[in-house]
Each structure stands twice: as structure tokens, then as C-alpha cells.
Write a structure and sequence with these properties.
By secondary structure, this protein is an alpha+beta fold. About 30% of the residues lie in helices and about 25% in strands. The protein is built from eleven helices and 16 strands. Helix 4 crosses helix 11 (about 410-420) and helix 7 (about 285-295) packs across helix 8.
């Protein structure tokens, strides 16, 4: 008999079933034993009557069993309205211990009071057993699935680009150098160049979900040296507004689906409401934002800092978006061109054709129309001192390349904001930062 997930048990009432999972709790009373079994889909109660002679071997086994051991159980699934846990119980015929846990855990994941985050990360395999963490990664998985789903519905193709690259292309100071046989190689900061190669190849609409690497010695709540990036690129656009519109539609679609699937659980476990945004997302220029922040909240910074949003300005932008537009998201446009990558298009007046997207006071996206004209992109690269480093990339634009644009979203940061988690360290399966390379 094959194992049945606990979530599926409701479809098998009155049948003999086999389940496997962790021992979540044991109540060993005078006349009966109650054992709670947990798998990634839920929990179920096992009930063993001590007075029945056929159960004596199982009673002894449970009496000496440690919590967090794993077991395989076969028995009759009974409808039991008096059982608080889903109104059903399994009366076991056989119990097999498939692995035995040590009696003392490094910490108890159900009570994290006094347990610091580093200890939790050291024993991440224990930390991840909590109901909260299981739900977190299920939500993250579905978030990615629904964004993928939107793109598939709109005829996008998923590609997979290499993570070993030959040159420290985008900004040499923030790449990891690795030994590649007899050569130097680098871990890719993003798939940007290869996404644009796909446009030059005529793929027209592509996306990728993959790791990216940044050699930034940043010890903040929202930075990591390795993270999962959701990258999108598509052709035949008229302006960067087309890119903004697609991103807004994709996020609205995904959040709508996510609310249907997990809205109640997220509210119960995380205390957060999944808010489905309205379209279109509000847009302001960088200059307008600073003007409003000064007017409304008396937030004043030196002109030298107004070439980008400060961390505090990002935070206040969330408040501004809610008060001015009754919205959680805001697009910010008209950044200074010199502060952005050379492959971002500038118009005839030198104005950057790109944007940032702010959600809940944090930047989640930098997007743009890309420069696809060979002479212009060569000039931009030369001005940045990168023309020799990116020769292979510049070749993409010599043989015809359509107007195109795109964006990238950090999945871990997106999850952090959705569920109001304090740090990306908790929204990555295994966090990688300047001081953490294990487990």
C-alpha cells in the first residue's frame, strides 16, 4: 500500500491507510496513547488503546519513542468528530520506526524564545520543521508558480543561462572569482547579458528563475551573496512603460492567486493580509517623491543624495503610496542616467528609460528598456570603461536586435515583504552571506 499524504486522508475515511511522517507529539495516558504524526501537508492523530492485547507491542514501542523520530503507520482511518485535529484518527495495525531522533534537540523549533538566529541557521534542518517555515516555503513556491503561470499564459519561454562567466562584466568589484581549470571565471551577478542575447536570437519573450551571486560585503536584513532571481525580458516594446505594465499585471495575477490559495493560512500564522493591488500601479518621478516626502513628512536630504532613494526615503515612499494613492506599490522613474547600467536606454535628451518598483517601503525591482542600437550601446559601454570587457556582449547587437526591455525580482526579498519576515536569512532555504557558508 502506498503512502498517503495527511492532506489527502479526508478522501479515505473508513479505509485502511499507510502514512509516514515525524512524531510531533505523544500523550501517554493511563488507558490510551495519542500520537500526533506530521508530514509537510498536515498532522493526524494516532490512537492506541492500551487495554487491547494486540496493541501491547505498539504500546511499548511508543512508550520508548522520542519526539521527532520518523515512523510508518498502517491502520484504519476513522471519522471521529470528538477529535479536535481534523475530526479523524487512525487506529493503527502496525507501526514501524524508520529513524530514531536523539532525545534532546539543539533547540525546540516550536518555542524560539531566547534562540538566536545564528543558532537556528546552524541547525536549519531543525528550524525548517516548524509549521510557520513549512508554510513560508509553500507560499514562496506558489508565488513563483503563479508568476510563471502568468508568463506561460502570455507565451513566454523559460530559459536557463550559465552561471560561470568569462569576464567580470557588469561591475567587476561585486563578482566572485573562481578557478576554472586553467582560467579565471566569475559567478554571474545576473543573467542580463544572456537574456538580451535571447532577444537578439529572436526568442522574443523569455524568463529565468535561477541563482545570482553578488560579492557585496553587506550585512543587512535584505542582502545575500547568493539569492534567487526571477528575470524577465521581452521584445518589440515601445517604451519602458510596457515593461512596467507587464510587471504590474504579473504581480497582480500572482498575488490574486496566492490570496485564494493561502490567504487564510497566512493571516492565521503570520498575521498578514495578502493585499491584491489594483491596476495601474501609481508612478512618480524621483524628484516628485523627494518633494512630497519633504512636504508631508519633513524628510530633507542633501541634493547629493537625491540621485537615488535613500533607505529611509524608500520606507517613507510606502507611506506616501498608501496616503496619496491607497496603494502598496509605486513605480519611481527619471533616475539620473549616470547612476544606472550602461545597457539601460537613454532618450535623445539623455533621460534614463527605466524605473524602480517599491513595495512596502523596499525596492524589489530595477527595470528598463534596454539599449538595442549597436552604436549607442558601444558608446555607453565606453563611457563606463567597460568596452573591452563586454566585447562578446556587444556583438549581439551587430546583426539585428529588436527593441526590448525587462526586469528582475529577488524571490527571497519578495517573500520577506509578503509575509513581514524580518530578514531574507529566514526566507532563503539556506542563507549565504559574507560570514555564512555552512551548512
Amino acid at each position: 500500500m502506498k503512502n498517503i499524504s495527511i492532506k489527502e486522508l479526508k478522501n479515505h475515511l473508513g479505509e485502511e491507510v499507510t502514512i509516514s511522517g515525524f512524531v510531533d507529539n505523544i500523550r501517554d495516558l493511563q488507558w490510551v496513547q495519542f500520537v500526533i504524526i506530521r508530514d509537510s501537508t498536515g498532522k493526524v492523530q494516532i490512537t492506541i488503546e492500551k487495554s487491547e492485547e494486540k496493541n501491547h507491542e505498539m504500546v511499548d514501542l511508543i512508550s520508548n519513542l522520542t519526539l521527532e523520530s520518523t515512523v510508518k503507520i498502517t491502520g484504519n482511518l476513522m471519522d471521529s468528530p470528538k477529535v479536535k485535529l481534523n475530526g479523524m484518527e487512525i487506529i493503527p495495525a502496525t507501526i514501524e520506526i524508520t529513524s530514531r531522533s536523539k532525545e534532546e534537540l539543539p533547540f525546540h523549533y516550536k518555542n524560539l524564545e531566547g534562540v538566536n538566529l545564528d543558532t537556528r541557521l546552524d541547525y536549519r534542518f531543525i528550524d525548517l520543521r516548524s509549521d510557520k517555515n513549512v508554510l513560508l516555503f509553500q507560499v514562496q513556491s506558489s508565488f513563483i508558480r503563479y508568476m510563471r503561470e502568468y508568463l506561460y499564459h502570455n507565451n513566454f519561454t523559460e530559459i536557463h543561462t550559465p552561471k560561470f562567466i568569462a569576464t567580470a562584466s557588469e561591475s567587476g568589484a561585486e563578482v566572485f572569482e573562481v578557478k576554472y581549470f586553467d582560467h579565471k571565471a566569475y559567478l554571474a551577478q545576473s543573467p542580463q547579458f544572456y537574456k538580451q542575447m535571447a532577444m537578439a536570437s529572436g526568442f522574443q519573450k523569455i524568463f529565468e528563475v535561477a541563482p545570482s551571486f553578488r560579492a557585496e560585503n553587506s550585512n543587512t536584513s535584505r542582502h545575500a551573496t547568493e539569492f534567487t532571481s526571477f528575470d524577465v525580458e521581452f521584445s518589440y516594446i515601445d517604451s519602458y512603460q510596457d515593461v512596467m505594465n507587464l510587471e504590474a499585471e504579473m504581480l497582480t495575477y500572482a498575488l490574486s492567486k496566492l490570496k485564494e490559495e493561502y490567504g487564510e493560512q497566512v493571516k492565521e500564522i503570520f498575521g498578514e493580509e495578502i493585499i491584491v493591488p489594483t491596476l495601474p500601479f501609481p508612478t512618480m518621478t524621483l524628484k516628485e517623491v523627494y518633494k512630497e516626502l519633504e512636504k508631508r513628512y519633513n524628510y530633507v536630504v542633501d541634493d547629493s543624495e537625491k540621485t537615488d532613494l535613500t533607505t529611509e526615503a524608500e520606507r517613507l515612499t510606502y507611506k506616501l503610496a498608501q496616503e496619496k494613492f491607497n496603494h502598496e506599490f509605486m513605480f519611481i522613474i527619471d533616475y539620473p542616467a549616470e547612476k544606472r547600467a550602461f545597457y539601460h536606454m537613454r532618450d535623445k535628451n539623455g533621460q534614463l528609460q527605466g524605473y524602480d518598483l517599491i513595495w512596502k517601503g523596499v525596492e524589489i525591482t530595477t527595470g528598463a528598456q534596454r539599449e538595442h542600437r549597436y552604436e549607442e550601446i558601444c558608446k555607453n559601454a565606453k563611457n563606463k570603461g567597460l568596452d573591452e570587457d563586454v566585447k562578446f556582449y556587444l556583438e549581439f547587437f551587430q546583426y539585428g536586435c529588436p527593441p526590448h526591455g525587462g526586469f528582475a525580482i529577488g524571490v527571497d526579498r519578495l517573500t520577506m515583504l509578503l509575509l513581514a519576515i524580518p530578514s531574507v536569512k529566514e526566507t532563503q532555504f539556506l542563507f549565504r552571506g559574507p560570514t555564512r557558508l555552512k551548512p
